[in-house]
Amino acid sequence: MVWYLLPLYLDIIRKGFTIMKSDIDISYAGKNIWKKCELMAENTKADIIFMREHPVNTGHFYAIPNDRVIAFFEEWIISQDSFKKLNDQQALAHFNGKIYMICDSADSCNHVKTLPMNRSSNNRLRSNNMSSKMAAVSTYPSSFTRFGGLCPPDKSINPCDEDVLYVHTICMTGFLTKMNKLKQLGFWLMKDTCTETKLDISLQSSKVINVSVTRCVPIPRLSPTVESTFLHCNASI
Questions:
Q1: What pLDDT, in 10s, does the model give residues 59-84?
Q2: Exposed site from 20, 147, 186, 193, fewest CB < 10 Å?
Q3: Across the strands, what pairs with 147?
Q4: If we measure between CA atoms, which residue out of 77, 57, 82 comes closest to residue 145?
């Protein structure tokens, strides 16, 4: 995720919608990921659900609309002014204990919600919730934890394993590298070869950024049985 997408998420949450965000290099296991995140939030009373990293990975998250989450995004967005050399995930790590706190139970998350948020005094995005409380953030382990870390293993993964909600090809860069890793994991369901298009996008600041868009044809569209392994796991998973 890059900085320029955060205002979009803030706008959606301000409108009262729950949001689930996903990086393009994530491939899902076919389970009901929305329901899983919904249950995690319900059980822990958390405002936002992230995958656990140092302290969180922002490639995938689930956020509930409320004043704490709105303030969280307002502060996260404005932090770009202070952390110009960091990406959004690196910047967010600096705010653990200031605008959010990690919690893993209903009691601990409810306690976090009583703590005052350390807000910047000159945040131009600030809405009317001036005396915001901290956002309660709950985390879950990576699907790769059982292989000894956060990086993808050099082997295939069963999408029906209970701890596999999705695979995220972190620890590497480049489209081809990530594509080959997803193939090795057994989570690449696109037809080769994908096509890449370069686009110029104009921002409100009159700045133009160059974006590469990769288009791939899903294999299940051509052969529906390919996806059967992902869609016929035990219903309780």
A1: 999 999 999 999 999 999 999 888 98
A2: 193
A3: none
A4: 57
Q: How far is CA 27 from the centre of its chain?
A: 12
Count the domains in the chain. Answer: 1
Give 144's contacts (C-beta < 8 A, 6+ positions apart).
Answer: 150, 151, 152, 153, 167
Beta strands in 53-174 (DSSP E): 56-63, 100-102, 135-140, 166-168
In a domain, 226, yes or no: no
**β pairing state of 135-140 and 190-202:** unpaired
* Tokens read off for 7: 């205002």
Hey, which bits of 65-180 come out as E strands? 100-102, 135-140, 166-168
Are residues 170 and 59 in contact, defined by beta-carbon separation less than 8 angstroms? Answer: yes
- Tens of pLDDT, residues 116-162: 998 887 767 676 656 589 999 999 999 999 998 889 999 999 999 98
Residues 217-237 pLDDT 10s:
888 777 777 778 787 776 444
Residue 176 inside a domain? The answer is no
Phi, psi of 140 (to 5 degrees): -130, 155
The verdict on residue 31 lying in a domain is yes
CA nearest neighbour of 204 among 11, 31, 40, 17? 11
75 within some domain = yes
Residue 27 domain boundaries = 3-140
Residues 188/182, Cβ–Cβ less than 8 Å: yes
Question: Burial letters for 215-235: b for 16+ Cβ neighbours within 10 Å, e otherwise?
Answer: eeeeebeeeeeebeebeebee
Cβ neighbours around 106 below 10 Å, total: 15
Give residue 223's identity as a one-letter amino acid code: S
Measured between alpha carbons, how far is 63 from 38 in angstroms, rounded to an integer? 10
